[in-house]
Design brief:
With 349 residues, the chain is α/β, with parallel strands linked by helices. The protein contains 15 helices and ten strands. The strands form two sheets. A six-stranded mixed sheet has the order 1-2-10-7-8-9, sandwiched between helices. A four-stranded parallel sheet has the order 5-4-3-6. Strand 7, helix 9 and strand 8 form a beta-alpha-beta unit. The longest helix has 15 residues. It is globular. The relative contact order is 0.15. The protein binds ligand F0G. The site of ligand F0G has 22 residues, from helix 4, helix 9 and helix 13.
Length: 349
């Protein structure tokens, strides 16, 4: 384990002078799916790029090691981001590692408890905003103009540079790009980052082809599908509750260039995929991540998969970040008397 900057130094805008701030992120597993080919009803190979196994439990760490390292190189003493919480958890951890300050602006309501704990315990100045993510991001831009605080949202170009390394890892493991890459879309940076990574690796001759990028938004927060800003986005997948994605135009360009799609999945479809991943694959990802798998299931039902194809789904964050959703879809049964018969009756097998 080296961390993505050391591993992919040749592909990243770093020099010998860049102080590498790392928690040894990346090198996450590409887990073969056990049951999806059967569920999809077509003989495809499906892999999960499980980004929940990064140091702070999400893909954000790939971009954050780059953004914070470059920030420190350029003399930044503080970073700021707006976040639906994963970016803030990552920014807080990498800022702590670098010994600099971190400010996070968080939209009101729908807090995933694990992520709140992360931002707080790493010592970030957490500022809840009486508004949504899009308002918080607008404020971050204003604040960075009047204070010497570096923005580490994905509008910071180093974030995309770091995040593209996930595509490198996929190709390094599979030996080529997959036919299709499924990914959840929120602020729309990650789909753009993967596409950049796949293109760079093809140019280098590391891959012979490019995948179709299939991005999925939650129905209640699907501005790229509707073609307009959503003023009050709502979804159980709080990580992608975004109505005006900063990288929207780049994501739409990715869709066109890759011959892919950006579509929506309902909260029910997301929760179904979320439970399937946990129950039948043994992989616990957060609801936003499950949107990628929900989308794949939806598109397979439309007949858009062909036998023999290889599909990769990015599972962007770990399920433990959002224990409330897990314990809402599955209830703890009432306690039983501490005797053998009562326990056997409760087991029911
Ligand atoms: N999945 C998870 C778990 C996320 O946290 C996010 C984004 C996405 C998917 C979507 O990625 O924005 O690049 O399209 N979370 C951001 C945050 C917005 O603040 O943590 P995207």
């Amino acid at each position: 384990m080296k961390g993505i900057i050391e591993r992919y130094r040749a592909y990243l805008p770093v020099t010998d002078k860049t102080p590498v701030v790392t928690l040894l992120e990346g090198d996450t597993p590409l887990i073969p799916s056990r049951c999806l080919p059967e569920v999809l009803g077509v003989k495809v190979k499906v892999y999960f790029k499980f980004e929940g196994l990064n140091p702070t439990g999400s893909f954000k760490d790939r971009g954050m090691t780059m953004a914070v390292s470059k920030g420190v190189e350029l003399g930044s003493k503080a970073v700021v981001c707006a976040s639906t919480w994963n970016t803030s958890a990552s920014a807080a951890a990498y800022a702590a590692r670098a010994g600099i300050a971190c400010v996070v602006l968080i939209p009101q309501g729908q807090i995933a408890l694990g992520k709140l704990a992360q931002a707080l315990i790493h010592g970030a100045r957490v500022i809840p905003i009486l508004g949504n993510f899009d308002r918080a991001l607008a404020l971050v831009k204003e604040i960075s103009k009047v204070r010497p605080i570096l923005i580490v949202n994905s509008i910071n170009p180093y974030r995309i540079e770091g995040q593209k390394t996930a595509a490198f890892e996929v190709v390094d493991v599979l030996g080529d790009a997959p036919d299709i890459h499924c990914i959840p879309v929120g602020n729309a940076a990650n789909i753009t980052a993967y596409w950049k990574g796949y293109k760079e690796y093809k140019k280098e001759g590391k891959a012979t082809r490019l995948p179709k990028m299939w991005g999925f938004q939650a129905s209640g927060a699907a501005p790229l599908v509707r073609g307009k800003i959503i003023e009050d986005p709502q979804t159980i997948a709080t990580a992608i509750r975004i109505g005006n994605p900063a990288s929207g135009p780049a994501a739409l360009a990715t869709r066109e260039e890759s011959g892919g799609a950006i579509d929506e999945v309902s909260d029910d479809e997301i929760l179904e995929a979320y439970q399937l991943l946990a129950n039948r694959e043994g992989v616990f990802s957060e609801p936003a991540s499950a949107a990628a798998v929900a989308g794949l299931i939806k598109y397979a039902r439309k007949g858009l998969l062909k036998a023999g194809q290889t599909v990769v789904c990015t599972l962007t964050g770990h399920g433990l970040k959002d224990p409330d959703t897990a314990t809402k879809v599955k209830n703890l049964p009432p306690p039983v008397k501490p005797d053998k018969d009562a326990v056997l009756k409760a087991i029911g097998l």
